[in-house]
Amino acid sequence: MITTKVARRITIVHDAALKELIFDQIEVLGAACYHYLEVEGKGRHAVTGDPYNGGRLLRVEIVTTQAIGAKILDWIHAAQFAQLNQYALFAFADNVEVDERDQAITQTI
């Protein structure tokens, strides 16, 4: 029988221009691992027409503890991002079950 643990998944969709800023802070806040992929979509904010990134969007998923997940969401929604309102940026959280044998994730949960 598979034994699982409940973890927090944080999903951030953002303009690729914010990639290094967000990835660096995810690590500073204590997330052990994350992954990302390029996505397409439409939202309230237009993506900037940066000639270097072509207006790309990235979706980052972090599976971590409730506490670290809360820190990441607090950071994303902090006042410092008010100045970045020209960029596509939103985040949400949900609970996921992680197989205890997946130690890359469960060692931090």
Q: What does this protein structure show overall?
A:
This protein is α+β, with helices and mostly antiparallel strands. The protein contains three helices and four strands; from the N terminus they run E-H-E-E-H-E-H. It has a four-stranded antiparallel sheet with strand order 2-3-1-4. The two termini are 20 Å apart.
Q: Helix/strand/pairing class, anyone?
A: alpha+beta
User: Strand order within the widest sheet?
Assistant: 2-3-1-4
Oligomer: single chain
Figure out the total of helices: 3
Total E-strand runs: 4
Stretches with pLDDT under 50, minimum 5 residues = none
Shape: elongated
Average pLDDT over all residues: 83
Short description:
This protein has 109 residues and is α+β, with helices and mostly antiparallel strands. It has helices spanning 19-28, 66-76, 103-106; strands spanning 4-15, 34-39, 57-64, 89-99.
Task: Give me some keywords for this one.
4-stranded antiparallel beta sheet; 3 helices
How are the SSEs ordered, and which strands pair?
Layout: E1 4-15, H1 19-28, E2 34-39, E3 57-64, H2 66-76, E4 89-99, H3 103-106
Antiparallel strand pairs: 1-3, 1-4, 2-3
